[in-house]
Amino acid sequence: MIIDGKQAAANLRSELAREVSALKKSKGITPSLTVVLVGEDAASEVYVRNKVKQTREVGMISNEIRLPATTTQTDLLSQLSLLNNDNSVHGILVQLPLPEHIDESAIIEAITPPKDVDGFHAMNSGRLLNGEKGALVPCTPQGCIMLAKQHLGGDLSGKHAVVIGRSNIVGKPVALLLLQENCTVTIAHSRTKNLAQVCQQADILVAAVGRAEFVQADWVKKGATVIDVGINRIEDALTGKPKLVGDVAYDSVSEVCGAITPVPGGVGPMTIACLLKNTLEAALQQAQNTQ
Predict the structure, then answer these.
(1) Which of 153, 159, 253, 254 has the greatest number of beta carbons closer than 10 A?
(2) Annotated catalytic, 51?
């Protein structure tokens, strides 16, 4: 079975649009997201364009701040300070990657936690670790959990989940979210011994290692749910043209597993939808704190 991330994202956006409309009518609040783009990275341009389009489609306010690649870290921090203190801005997202002369971690930590809709700030990470309600959680991990629950009927209790990858952006937070869903969780990585055998134990396998078609069919337990987070550009062996593939060898694994997310069209669309979900949550929390 193919887990359709495009349809799941469309369903979530429809739900968010209704909630945004209700918030406008009841409290006169329109959630607002500001995206800061530094430089002219081609992939970032596409991501930002999609974020802006979808933000507006659900009835939110979308603002862009475009800065040249020569922008200094000091100037970027000053811009973030203005946004942090602007009550009309509910969510702030600085598009990564940043130019090499700018310290990404310093920029992430400069965003005030209540507006950190990427969920990368140490305070939001700590709240996720503690299992606190209301934490702004990284968007891709949220999407992974939603897609897994969509296929497995909403209850992941007792499932053995294996996460390949230990990044702060996907691996660690998705493992914590799986724990909150009462899964037994194994985090695997590049130095895990007998990695294939570890993966074979998984009821839910999340591949977030950043290596094209890394997970093979004989790594996957029959009937397992496979969530492929990877986005890798490779050359098509037949046509010689570039194509996008995940971290999972899709054609062979799909014959073994019970369900799998495709690349593209799986986790990717859910990431932006969950960004909008975080923006709405941020607006609600800020309104409550103001009251």
Answers:
(1) 253
(2) yes
